[in-house]
From TrEMBL, chain B:
UniProtKB keywords: FAD, Flavoprotein
Upper lineage: Bacteria, Pseudomonadati, Pseudomonadota, Alphaproteobacteria, Hyphomicrobiales
Organism domain of life: Bacteria
One Pfam match: FAD_binding_5
Source organism: Bradyrhizobium betae
Xref: InterPro entries: CO_DH_flav_C, CO_DH_flav_C_dom_sf, Diverse_Substr_Oxidored, FAD-bd_PCMH, FAD-bd_PCMH-like_sf, FAD-bd_PCMH_sub1, FAD-bd_PCMH_sub2, Mopterin_DH_FAD-bd
Alphabetized GO MF terms: FAD binding; oxidoreductase activity
Domain FAD-binding PCMH-type: 1-223
The protein, known as: Molybdopterin dehydrogenase
Length: 169, 316
């Protein structure tokens, strides 16, 4: 067993955990924040994506105890049904989902992707490594490739993200 | 997952000596490979040493004009660093071709080099595998081998090394700095870090027990056009079938390292002398002595054609 204190969606939380507990299981099973989903549990689908210290990661491939003192944002922290985050609202407007299982991960990832482009982080499809990357559809799709949607809602997801980024799809 | 104790260390010496006092301990950095394997009980450390607090997270100028990359620098940070993008584009490109945005945010320079094979039989604990369970046999030999090695393999193991980043590091002649439990440090040329499988495929590197990677150093920039071309079953978020990392100079000379074909990044310096004569000549030397299976013989022509495309692209 180990103890852990970290901030989740702006609130300090203290837990006593088996060292084996992943961040994903700590969020879902211990803090009952079940918005974050477990798809593959092996880094292959992106359903568990959360934002830690401003960066998106797969919460299934990290131990909760490794996040002492850090700050985690889950889908519940981005917005609520009454006060949706612009990305959440755009997913609703564009039907960026069918079953919704991948959606919390898609939205957390999408929010971080826009920050990554703003920060000038290049991607596999960026033409000139030494120039600022542009938010094109190809860039978006490459950057979102870590989030699999078995319902295949990709086109609508891309439209939702593009709208939030302030550019036509 | 088997239970384990967990400790966070704050100096390299403390990390190495913690590892020395428990032969079943493992370092954990990003955790993206180790935890995956621990969930499947392919890795079963009884103690985890979290090295994330060591502060090896900087990219600094090295004395000879190169760059020293801390072992804990994340793959995203490394790929996005302005100096890497400008002078070592091959490294940025290889990193960005690997995994996903989420994984690259966690994955570290050392962890990436030390990631284990993606051989499906290694992952399937119901199958014999000399790498996972020495002496049990190799289920891949005689099995489905489309992804496996075509050169440098043995009768004990035909697995490949899956890292994209390591291909760039090999072409760039990086060196790996380590500290051992007794406090001694050493420099390992990247060519000598990974081993061929031989009779002991479970021993994958030349690191000794408890040896900690502290940094990876790139020599001063060599110029040229940097290209990393990865061929895979889907356009993103998939491991390479084959990949070619090349640095091509204006006069047609250069360097080539290849991924997806062997148990380590594959580079044959003698083959590079053939570069001005084209891909066919280079590939012939590079893959001399290859022993593919029926299912993966396509990798030989795929390497040649991919290299051909790279050399054409380099001409602009
Ligand atoms: C779905 C998926 C897709 C992927 N696709 C790709 C891909 O296309 N291309 C690619 O190249 N990779 C890919 N990867 C692999 C990924 O790049 C690796 O998991 C990652 O780089 C490992 O780094 P880490 O810091 O998380 O390592 P960890 O998991 O923390 O550690 C890996 C190993 O290194 C050891 N270690 C870590 N740091 C040190 C140190 N400082 N000194 C000594 N030993 C150390 C650990 O003990 C462990 O044995 C993929 C992974 C997943 C899950
Ligand atoms: S190829 Fe190597 S890793 Fe794969 S089953 Fe055989 S011994 Fe194991
Ligand atoms: S549940 Fe974490 S990536 Fe699939
Ligand atoms: S909406 Fe069903 S998996 Fe994406």
């Amino acid at each position: 067993m180990a103890t852990l204190s970290f901030s989740v969606n702006g609130e300090v939380r203290a837990l006593k955990l088996d060292t084996r507990t992943t961040l994903l299981d700590a969020l879902r099973e211990h803090l009952h924040l079940t918005g974050t989903k477990k798809g593959c549990d092996h880094g292959q689908c992106g359903a568990c994506t959360v934002i830690v210290g401003g960066q998106r990661i797969n919460s299934c491939l990290t131990l909760a105890v490794m996040h002492e003192g850090e700050s985690v944002t889950t889908i519940e922290g981005l917005g609520t049904p009454e006060h949706m985050h612009p990305m959440q609202a755009a997913f609703v407007r564009h039907d960026g989902f069918q079953c919704g299982y991948c959606t919390p991960g898609q939205i957390c990832s999408a929010v971080a992707v826009l920050d990554e482009i703003k920060a000038g982080i290049p991607s596999h499809v960026t033409g000139d490594l030494n120039a600022a990357p542009h938010l094109t559809n190809t860039e978006l799709r490459e950057r979102m490739s870590g989030n699999i949607c078995r319902c295949g809602a990709y086109s609508n997801i891309a439209e939702a993200i593009t709208e939030v980024a302030g550019r036509p799809a | 997952m088997k239970s384990f104790t967990y400790e966070k260390v704050n100096s390299a010496e403390a990390a190495a000596s913690a590892a020395a006092s428990n032969s079943n301990a493992k370092f954990i950095a990003g955790g993206t490979n180790l935890l995956d394997l621990m969930k499947l009980e392919i890795e079963t450390p009884s103690h985890l040493i979290d090295v994330n607090g060591l502060g090896f997270d900087k990219i600094e100028p090295a004395p000879d004009g190169g760059l020293r990359i801390g072992a804990l620098v994340r793959n995203t940070t490394l790929a996005a660093d302005a100096r890497i993008r400008r002078d070592y584009g091959l490294l940025s490109r290889a990193l960005l071709a690997g995994a996903s945005g989420q994984l690259r945010n966690k994955a570290t320079t050392a962890g990436n080099l030390l990631q284990r094979t993606r051989c499906p039989y290694f992952y399937d604990t119901n199958q014999p595998c000399n790498k996972r369970s020495p002496g049990s046999g190799c289920a891949a030999i005689g099995g489905v081998t489309r992804q496996h090695a075509v050169i440098g393999a043995s009768d004990a193991c035909i697995a490949t090394h899956p890292s994209d980043m390591a291909i760039a590091m090999r072409a760039l002649d990086a060196t790996v700095q380590t500290v051992r439990p007794d406090g001694s440090t050493r420099d390992i040329p990247i060519a000598d870090l990974h081993r061929l499988p031989g009779d002991t495929p479970h021993i994958e590197t030349t690191l000794t027990s408890g040896e900690l990677i502290t940094s990876v150093t790139l020599p001063k920039p060599v110029g040229g056009t940097h290209i990393y071309r990865k061929v895979r079953d889907r356009a993103s978020y998939a491991f390479a079938l084959v990949s070619v990392g090349a640095i091509v100079q204006r006069d047609g000379t250069g360097r080539v390292a290849v991924g997806g074909v062997a148990h380590k990044p594959w580079r044959v310096e003698a083959a590079e002398a053939e570069m001005p004569r084209g891909a066919k000549a280079v590939a012939a030397r590079l893959l001399e002595g290859a022993r593919p299976t029926k299912e993966n013989a396509f990798k030989l022509s795929l390497v040649e054609r991919t290299l051909g495309a790279v050399l054409t692209e380099a001409k602009g």
